[in-house]
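[User] Could I get a sequence and structure tokens?

[Assistant]
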Amino acid sequence: MAISQDIYGGNDYLPHRYHSWMTEPGRVVIIARRDRKLVALESGLLVDGGETVIVEGLRVCPNERGCGLAGVIQRFVDGYIKRVYPNVKTKRLTRGDDPGPEKLSKFTLLARRAILSLWGDSEGFDSFVSGLKEKLLVSDESNSSSPLVQVKDLDALKTILMDSDLSSRLQLPGGAIIQDWQPLKLMESNLHILARRNLTWFVDGSSGKPLFMSFHTPPYPIPFNGGSLRFNIDLYGTDTSLAKKALTAHLNSVRSEIQGLVLVHIYMHQTLWEDLKQFCEGHETVKQFRDYWEQLFLEREP
């Protein structure tokens, strides 16, 4: 796991996910060795009924970085996918940094999402969530807009996700659901992938045509600061009051799971970021972790 050293500022998911990747259906993991030592890794997940590969997990060990090894393993993985999975038509990926116009020109940029990052310890987390609940009550936003309901029934979730109008109503990024950096088209075969993720879903319950939808991935350990938790929340829709309610509901639902230091990353439509940032301000122990940043959703031919 030393290959993850300094990756994403200690936010790397790979140490937590690596072993489950070894057995995940539709997953390819390629590793590179030099002198019997693992020096690089990249993975691909087949989605969209086998027509798309999501590439992720590109890693090069610290003493091999800057030598062109990343390009070598990327080309190998592209060739392997083409050979073994000839039905793949599209290569998709997400990244959290803007690589610049030269690299971006090789891809189609499908969407950008804003990210609000917070951090704090478990002792302050509980009072932070209580504070957000108070803000909702004071502003009357808890009653002024549609109720949020948790969706646990897979058939009910399928009905919502398979609605042909959902993408335009919620302004989904590139017409896809991006679950913890994995972009998935709204198609039935991808529901099996989402079902494996143990997600907690909330939707606007005012009608059968929700205007807001959100989910969170269970908190998982990351190397940050000698060992922390990472908690990712994905928000879909542009209604600010529903976004505040959804954020509060997700944070509240994991209160008992938070131990030690936690980093919370909230992914959303760009128009929501400033309001949610202000909504989360004013607490002594849970604060903004970094300035505004974005998630880029890219695709190209494999």
User: Anything to note?
Assistant: The mean pLDDT is 93.
